[in-house]
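From the methods appendix. Each design record in this collection lists the tokenized structure first, followed by the designed amino acid sequence. Records were kept in a plain field format so they could be parsed without special tools. The example shown here is representative of the layout used throughout.

RECORD:
FOLD TOKENS (95 positions):
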């Protein structure tokens, strides 16, 4: 085995109030040296929605993060059938 690169990274997960706030927050994070959102689906697409699959999880999110807007799925939607929040993940190399 030959290790050709070794670096340490910090990773943060960020809950955003809503989609508009996420756009501003990501811009600010990038100015501070953080990457763009690194959460990806299996197909490689960027993910920003974190579904809340149970009422208990929705209640816990509302209790712990009252300023975060819980988004409702679109009626008849196929991809998202549960309430969700906007969540991104960012990383940066530790010096």
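DESIGN:
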């Amino acid at each position: 085995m030959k290790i050709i690169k070794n670096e340490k990274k910090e990773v943060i997960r960020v809950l955003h109030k809503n989609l508009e706030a996420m756009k501003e927050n990501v811009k600010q994070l990038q100015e501070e040296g953080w990457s763009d959102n690194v959460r990806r689906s299996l197909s490689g697409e960027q993910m920003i929605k974190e579904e809340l699959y149970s009422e208990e999880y929705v209640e816990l999110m509302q209790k712990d993060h009252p300023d975060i807007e819980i988004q409702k799925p679109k009626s008849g939607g196929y991809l998202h059938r549960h309430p969700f929040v906007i969540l991104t993940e960012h990383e940066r190399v530790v010096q």
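APPENDIX NOTE: Strands lie at 8-16, 49-51, 84-94.
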